[in-house]
């Protein structure tokens, strides 16, 4: 069986020394690049299944690599970086990165994000006929949301918000992306508006809205819907 191939783009030797054996033990083939230019070439010539990308590269900013790849490739990109500013995360995700893991990190967290990104590779915006997560069932064809035998009554905007998150289950969706998709580009900065609707949605779909398990907050960045069961 062919192992999923992961390209690790990081110029820190200690990160490369840690990641290669750890990811190999987790069942992946690992190839390496130290610069942005090497990364772009490796994606084109060695056909990895996923890229783990540091933003602080010696020849260019990692965000330039994301932009370059997104011009011609939909390969999953997981950012692995010591940059913890919210603006950096948002910029990387808005450019097309699939997820963002901060250094220092645990290998368990990283491999979980890798598995999620690989599951979504090649999927279109279409979603399964029925989605189930934490006891909640979403039926996009009938625009119906249920928990057990009970119908969960959502407003049209609440439903559109839930459906957009479901299309990207397991991945971070930025505030701007959610607002633009559900309310339109003119509302890209209306964060208070979004928080109100997320709060209303959680009251209706979560078992315990004070400890949400379906729609989780990524502080300062956006929201992540739990991957379907």
UniProtKB/TrEMBL annotation:
<keyword id="KW-0238">DNA-binding</keyword>
<dbReference type="GO" id="GO:0005829">
    <property type="term" value="C:cytosol"/>
</dbReference>
<dbReference type="GO" id="GO:0000156">
    <property type="term" value="F:phosphorelay response regulator activity"/>
</dbReference>
<dbReference type="InterPro" id="IPR001789">
    <property type="entry name" value="Sig_transdc_resp-reg_receiver"/>
</dbReference>
<keyword id="KW-0963">Cytoplasm</keyword>
<dbReference type="InterPro" id="IPR001867">
    <property type="entry name" value="OmpR/PhoB-type_DNA-bd"/>
</dbReference>
<keyword id="KW-0804">Transcription</keyword>
<dbReference type="InterPro" id="IPR011006">
    <property type="entry name" value="CheY-like_superfamily"/>
</dbReference>
<dbReference type="InterPro" id="IPR036388">
    <property type="entry name" value="WH-like_DNA-bd_sf"/>
</dbReference>
<feature type="modified residue" description="4-aspartylphosphate">
    <location>
        <position position="54"/>
    </location>
</feature>
<dbReference type="Pfam" id="PF00072">
    <property type="entry name" value="Response_reg"/>
</dbReference>
<dbReference type="Pfam" id="PF00486">
    <property type="entry name" value="Trans_reg_C"/>
</dbReference>
<keyword id="KW-0805">Transcription regulation</keyword>
<keyword id="KW-0597">Phosphoprotein</keyword>
<feature type="DNA-binding region" description="OmpR/PhoB-type">
    <location>
        <begin position="128"/>
        <end position="227"/>
    </location>
</feature>
<feature type="domain" description="Response regulatory">
    <location>
        <begin position="5"/>
        <end position="118"/>
    </location>
</feature>
<dbReference type="GO" id="GO:0032993">
    <property type="term" value="C:protein-DNA complex"/>
</dbReference>
<protein>
    <submittedName>
        <fullName>Response regulator</fullName>
    </submittedName>
</protein>
<dbReference type="GO" id="GO:0045893">
    <property type="term" value="P:positive regulation of DNA-templated transcription"/>
</dbReference>
<feature type="domain" description="OmpR/PhoB-type">
    <location>
        <begin position="128"/>
        <end position="227"/>
    </location>
</feature>
<dbReference type="GO" id="GO:0042802">
    <property type="term" value="F:identical protein binding"/>
</dbReference>
<keyword id="KW-0902">Two-component regulatory system</keyword>
<dbReference type="InterPro" id="IPR039420">
    <property type="entry name" value="WalR-like"/>
</dbReference>
<dbReference type="GO" id="GO:0000987">
    <property type="term" value="F:cis-regulatory region sequence-specific DNA binding"/>
</dbReference>
